[in-house]
Structure formats: structure tokens, C-alpha cells
Amino acid sequence: MANRVEGMTEKLQEQAMQEFCRHGYMGASLRTISENAGTTPRSIYTRYGDKEGLFSALVSECAGTLKDLIGNYMEGYAARPADEQRMLFHDEQFDAEYQGYIREIIGYIYDNWDVVKLLICKSEGTKYASFVDEIVSIDEKYTLQYIEFTGNDVLTSGRATTQLVHLLCSSFIHGFFEFVRHDMERNEAERYIVQLQGFFSCGWDRLFNP
User: Fold this and answer.
1) How would you write the pLDDT of the chain (210 residues) with one tens digit per residue?
2) What is the pTM (predicted TM-score) of this model?
């Protein structure tokens, strides 16, 4: 077995980040990555198995952390008593907690900007291309759970359907990550998310509490 060159893994990941950022997963060249790192494509296959394995090495931890941040927050809210959950849109303490949660996510994204940019904008052709839709599924799951647990009649009354719930969750989550796609500065992104969340809160409130 050939000895691994010290520091080569770091060089490969550094060059892979640059190549994937420039050309996306589909357009990236393993030969270019390896040449710029001072090695051969064989080094990539030895360490990562294939091109997607290399991409995954760059984004998997970040993807998992974002899912955990979002899922754990929603799980925590879902554990509250039904009476508290019914006050979702009319509770100043909850609003303050929610804004803190949003700032935490935004902060994490900006602390890991290049990796998140790969995940959101450059992952077509990999399993991570469905990342945002997986977040949509989490949001949809807890929205439907909220409706059932609080006894809200939004579905049984016909004011909404499960398809509408899906479409609204999808619109919000895809809209949330637009600040990444548009390369917003952090303060601009924070303003944008507050406005987006305010818009959707009013709409959900009208559906849930006509």
C-alpha cells in the first residue's frame, strides 16, 4: 500500500472547494482538482471513492448540522403543551425565541458560507441536491403535527388542504435559502428573513385563526 503524502487530504479538499464553487458538481474536474493539489486522480479515488464522495466530504457535516438545528428546534416546540402552541402567532416570548433561533441558523450559515453555498447552489447531480426539499419535509411534518395536536380545524373545515400545507412549507423554506443564492450580506439577510417570516406568519395565522 502506498504511503499517503502528509497534508494531501487538506490540499485536495481546498482545491475541490475551489473547483466545485467555480463549476458546480457536474462541471467540476477531478483531474483539475488533483493537478492543482499536486497529485493524481488516483489520490481522490483512494481517499473518497469517487467524485460524489469528495463532494460529500466537504458538505456532509454542514448538512447534518443544519438539519439538526432545524429539526431540534421544531421538536422542542412540538413538545410544548397544546395551549401554549395555540398561541403560536400571539406570544411575544415565543417570537423572541424564534428570532434567536433564526439568528443562530443565519450565523451558522455565514460562518460556513462556502460550504453552504456548495450545498444550496452547486450540488445538482449529488444526493445533496434534495437537501432543501428534505428541510421542507421536516417543516411540513411538524406543521401537520401542530394542526393535529392543537385540534385546529384548518383541514377539516376546508380552509386548507394537505397539499396547500406542503406548498406553503415549500415556499417558505425555499424562500429562506434565497439569501444564499443571492449572496446577500449578513445584515441584509437578517432583514430579509424577518420580512419573509412576518409575511408567512400573517398568512398562517389567517388560515389557523380566521
Assistant:
1) 344 566 888 999 999 999 999 999 999 999 999 999 999 999 999 999 999 999 999 999 999 999 999 999 999 999 999 998 988 888 888 888 888 999 999 999 999 999 999 999 999 999 999 999 999 999 999 999 999 999 999 999 999 999 999 999 999 999 999 999 999 999 999 999 999 999 999 999 999 998
2) 0.91
Give the Å distances, CA to CA, from 170 to 4, 132, 133, 134, 200.
Answer: 45, 9, 7, 10, 12
Question: Distance between CA 159 and CA 163 in Å, rounded?
Answer: 12
Contact 118, 13 (CB under 8 A): no
Q: What is the DSSP string of 60-101?
A: HHHHHHHHHHHHHHHHHHHTS-HHHHTTTTS-HHHHHHHHHH
Amino acid making up residue 115: V
The C-alpha atoms of residue 56 and residue 114 are separated, in whole angstroms, by 14
For residue 20, how many other CB atoms are within 10 A of its CB?
A: 26
Contact (CB, 8 A) for 165 and 95: no
The H or E element containing residue 155 is none
Give kind and range of the element (H or E) at residue 32: helix 30-36
Compute the distance between CA of residue 125 and CA of residue 65 in angstroms, rounded to an integer: 22
CA distances for 158 relative to 16, 87, 152, 165, angstroms: 50, 22, 12, 12
